[in-house]
Design goal:
Number of domains of chain B: 1
Shape of chain C: globular
Oligomer: heterotrimer
Order of helices and strands of chain C: EEEHEEHHHEHEHEEHH
Structural class of chain B: mainly alpha
Strand content of chain C: 25-35%
CATH superfamily of one domain in chain C: P-loop containing nucleotide triphosphate hydrolases
Largest sheet of chain C: 6 strands, mixed
CATH class of one domain in chain C: Alpha Beta
Strand content of chain B: under 5%
Chains: A mainly alpha (226), B mainly alpha (227), C alpha/beta (226)
Number of strands of chain B: 0
Helix content of chain B: over 70%
Structural class of chain C: alpha/beta
Number of helices of chain B: 8
Order of helices and strands of chain B: HHHHHHHH
Chain lengths: 226, 227, 226
């Protein structure tokens, strides 16, 4: 039943995405200054927004794990962080492509991209350290701690990169999304929905896998205990 | 003095006493700082005056690399003879044990920085004495941030495989907002600017980082010590 | 009146249940010998009693606070780079002892280390380090002593010191829980025994002459087939 729900969600997300891409590529004109490449915004920004949603969910899940000690919360946290980090990577790559097309350089230390890069590094630490902890309760506890510390850093990063004379203040280029003309807004919103649906499906897949793993572990436990 | 705080000081004194007797991490850390200072001088082939532009960045890279070595030892020094067990089993509150270790790491890193700073001034011909007052404040603020977060992660990974490799992966990204402020303010100071106006935002950033992570770490360390 | 009770305590390490619903009641003023093979869960249970580890399920009931617990685990729990006196002063302060200096001197005298009180623990012989560990555990006159195989690998002098301290502690009303491999020195002191077999307490009761005379008797009578 749960698997069917995940499939349905993923399929719905795929359909919405395809519909949106169709709109974006065929129904919208090229943008005045940027040409065709501006369309990447319909993936680039939704990826960032979805990532933030999932990181926030992971923060709540981490706090709940520390309070309730229920491993289900840990499973939610790791699933959200894995998918969130992947979305940040999508954001970074699409941003880089956009930048190259617009300004001829693959990376400019502008505010948004730098902030996303920092986010990636913070959660990369979580993903690297987590498998190195063998014992599940310890692993979940330490992971929750790291996740909370990482999330708390994001606003500090955003403040820091706005300090005077920091490299982000003099970027080679700036990817400005700026004001959006009215005709772009509906596909933009639909794009956010599409990415959210697909990535939620991915989170649920990962969650299902994590929960199954725990079930296997506890069956193994029962076997050992016999 | 409230019991917890006096316990924290007792543990800080203990860490400092054992460290200053063996000088293991101070020697390693200071030597490392020296080597990096030399390496960086070959990395950049700049005119004397141009060095001022990278002075803050350079100095804080040296300090944070040296700092990682010191904070790594914070909790791992409790592993031989299972001393950590005795500390945790004692009535000493978890936050007091942690605070004591953070304070000791802070003092040790400050010692390494005090050794490195004159050498830095010497190698790069940077006249840091002119802005010594504000510079010391920035160094103390940023060093506290490094040691409080570093000690917290030291506790997190004390039982983890490949501890020395894991600490940098966790620590450096979290410290980036702190380091940006430390680097920027130090460069500004060494270039003759004051910490007023726009530059004061650096100080605000440092204080904000320190306040938030000190509170967070003290509150959450209890979850880490008894699993 | 109970000094401490474990109520259906489970402890998992990953897949492996080190304790499977272990229940134990320890009378105040008694000396309980906790017996069991290697891997039975003795160390795990003692650590939980000492507040070093949280049970996965079940609970520990005790009226004794952390100031009243003296713990001696496998590690000696003293700092190699501090002197004997400095070690005991520190632990005295941590345990809230009224006059740490006097208590430390008394403890060192009791274990025969007064003469070398300013020597670094690193420089001590093995027997001396063990006596220092014992001094630390008894320093604050604990209400309950939790000792994990304390007689294992002690030299004669250390054994004599430990036995003497344990007898004194018992006569002043302290409670002792001591895991052991039925070593004679431990059994002589014990008023009660408990047998831990694969994470469960399979027998608990007063010490009888049979147990003292025949080391394997308890395992044969109450243990599972070996």
């Amino acid at each position: 039943m749960r698997e069917k729900a995940i499939w349905a969600l993923g399929l719905l997300g795929a359909v919405v995405m395809i519909y949106n891409l169709h709109t974006v590529f065929l129904n919208l004109p090229d943008e005045a200054m940027q040409g065709a490449i501006y369309r990447i915004i319909f993936i680039h920004v939704p990826a960032a927004i979805s990532a933030q949603v999932f990181f926030t969910v992971s923060l709540v899940a981490s706090i709940l794990f520390l309070v309730k000690k229920n491993h289900a919360f840990d499973a939610v946290a790791v699933s959200c962080i894995e998918v969130g980090t992947m979305l940040v990577l999508v954001n970074l790559v699409t941003g880089s492509i956009w930048g190259k097309s617009q300004w001829g350089i693959w990376w400019a230390w502008d505010l948004r991209m730098t902030s996303q890069l920092m986010c990636f590094l913070l959660y990369l630490g979580y993903l690297v350290v987590r498998p190195a902890i063998a014992e599940p309760t310890q692993r979940a506890t330490m992971s929750a701690f790291i996740a909370i510390f990482a999330y708390a850093d994001i606003p500090l990063v955003d403040l820091a990169i706005r300090l005077p004379n920091v490299r982000t203040q003099h970027p080679g280029a700036v990817l400005e999304t700026g004001q959006m003309a009215p005709m772009f807004i509906p596909p933009f919103l639909v794009g956010i929905l599409a990415v959210l649906l697909i990535s939620t499906a991915l989170v649920l897949v990962r969650l299902h896998q994590e929960t199954s793993q725990r079930e296997i572990d506890s069956l193994r436990r029962e076997l050992h205990a016999l | 003095m409230p019991h917890g705080l006096s316990t924290a000081f007792a543990i800080a004194r203990k860490d400092l006493r054992t460290e200053l007797r063996t000088k293991e991490s101070i020697n390693a850390s200071a030597s490392f700082a020296l080597v990096i200072l030399v390496l960086f001088s070959f990395a950049f082939n700049l005119e004397r005056d141009e060095f001022y532009a990278i002075s803050g960045g350079l100095l804080w890279l040296v300090f944070v690399f040296a700092g990682a070595l010191i904070v790594n030892r914070s909790f791992s020094r409790e592993l031989p003879n299972d001393c950590l067990d005795v500390l945790v089993a004692s009535p000493a509150p978890g936050w007091a044990i942690f605070l004591g270790k953070a304070m000791a790491a802070f003092v040790l890193l400050t010692i390494v920085e005090a050794i490195s700073l004159p050498i830095f001034g010497l190698f790069y011909n940077i006249h840091w004495m002119d802005s010594a007052g504000p510079l010391v404040i920035i160094i103390l603020l940023a060093t506290w941030g490094i040691t409080i977060v570093g000690a917290a992660f030291s506790a997190v990974i004390v039982n983890v495989r490949l501890r020395e490799l894991m600490l940098p992966v966790l620590l450096y990204p979290i410290l980036i907002p702190l380091l940006i402020a430390a680097m920027g303010s130090t460069t500004a100071l060494l270039s003759g600017e004051q910490m007023t106006g726009d530059n004061f935002s650096y100080i605000r950033q440092l204080i904000g980082f320190d306040a938030m992570y000190t509170a967070l770490a003290l509150y959450m360390i209890e979850f880490i010590l008894v699993v | 009146m109970l000094a401490v009770a474990a109520d259906r305590v489970w402890k998992y390490f990953g897949d492996y249940p080190a304790l499977r619903g272990a229940s134990l009641e320890v009378e105040k003023g008694s000396c309980m010998a906790l017996l069991g093979r290697n891997g039975a869960g003795k160390t795990t249970l003692l650590r939980i009693l000492a507040n070093l580890s949280r049970p996965t399920k079940g609970e520990i009931k005790t009226a004794i606070g952390k100031t009243g617990i003296g713990y001696l685990g496998h590690g000696i729990g003293v700092y190699d780079d501090l002197s004997a006196m400095e070690n005991l002063l520190l632990f005295g302060e941590l345990m809230g002892v009224a006059d740490p200096k006097q208590a430390a001197l008394d403890a060192l005298d009791r274990v025969g280390l007064l003469r070398v009180k300013d020597g670094l623990a690193r420089e001590f012989s093995r027997g001396m380090r063990q006596r220092l560990a014992v001094a630390r555990a008894f320093l604050h006159r604990p209400e309950i002593l939790l000792l994990d195989e304390p007689f294992t690998s002690l030299d004669d002098r250390a054994i004599a010191v430990l036995q003497s301290l344990l007898k004194d502690a018992l006569s002043s009303g302290a409670t002792i829980v001591m895991s052991t491999h039925q070593i004679r020195e431990a059994m002589e002191l014990a008023t009660h025994v408990a047998l831990l077999e694969r994470g469960k307490i399979v027998h608990t009761g007063p010490q009888t002459p049979e147990m003292l005379l025949d080391p394997g008797w308890l395992y044969r009578t109450y243990g599972e087939a070996s």
